[in-house]
Specification:
The protein contains 2 helices and 13 strands. By secondary structure, the protein is mainly β. It has a single domain, classed as Glucose Permease (Domain IIA) (Distorted Sandwich). A hairpin with a 3-residue loop joins strand 7 and strand 8. It is globular, with a radius of gyration of 15 Å.
């Protein structure tokens, strides 16, 4: 069940937020915003937007092509992957292995990035782009957070709305 986020001065009203403890847990982690030069309060909540008959379940953070993208917190880089919908992607587990952070549509990876490496919050992982199914004239980072299941499969989990976590942290 989803409930509306509480209004916070200076923020656009979010469309909906998960009512579980996860947004508070994310907010308590003080996740770094992943795109340099973009203020979180300027980002629109796209989590519930429709995408080809399904929910988007991610934030699209619009930025100029080539803008640095950074790890939101410490954790292990578990997969570099190129897919038709996401283009160049990074999957990062949080330190406890409970969450996976998904960064998609990257223009390119940061030099030296490789699977298995430990990331620190703020580490450069790539650059905003339009790879995959992103419109060529709309560079952005598609950022998602998922709760991992017991199998720890990097490609699936329960989607959480990171927009609400950033709002709660402000």
């Amino acid at each position: 069940m989803a409930v509306a986020c509480l209004a916070v001065p200076g923020w656009a009203i979010a469309e909906a937020c998960d009512d579980s403890a996860w947004p508070a847990t994310l907010a308590a982690r003080a996740l770094q915003f992943p795109v340099d030069g973009i203020r979180p309060e300027t980002v629109r909540d796209t989590f519930l937007d429709g995408r080809l008959g399904r929910r988007h379940e991610a934030l699209d953070i619009m930025a100029p092509r080539g803008t640095p993208v950074r790890a939101v917190e410490d954790g292990k880089l578990v997969k570099l992957f190129e897919s038709k919908p996401g283009g160049l992607t990074v999957y990062q587990f949080d330190p406890a292995g409970q969450l996976v952070y998904y960064y998609a549509h990257l223009d390119r990876y940061a030099e030296g990035l490789h699977e298995g490496m430990q990331l620190r919050g703020g580490d450069l992982i790539g650059y905003v782009g339009t790879t995959g199914n992103a419109a060529p004239d709309a560079p952005h980072l598609h950022f998602a957070v998922f709760v991992l299941g017991p199998e720890k499969q990097w490609w699936k989990g329960e989607a959480l709305n990171p927009y609400c976590a950033w709002r709660a942290a402000r």
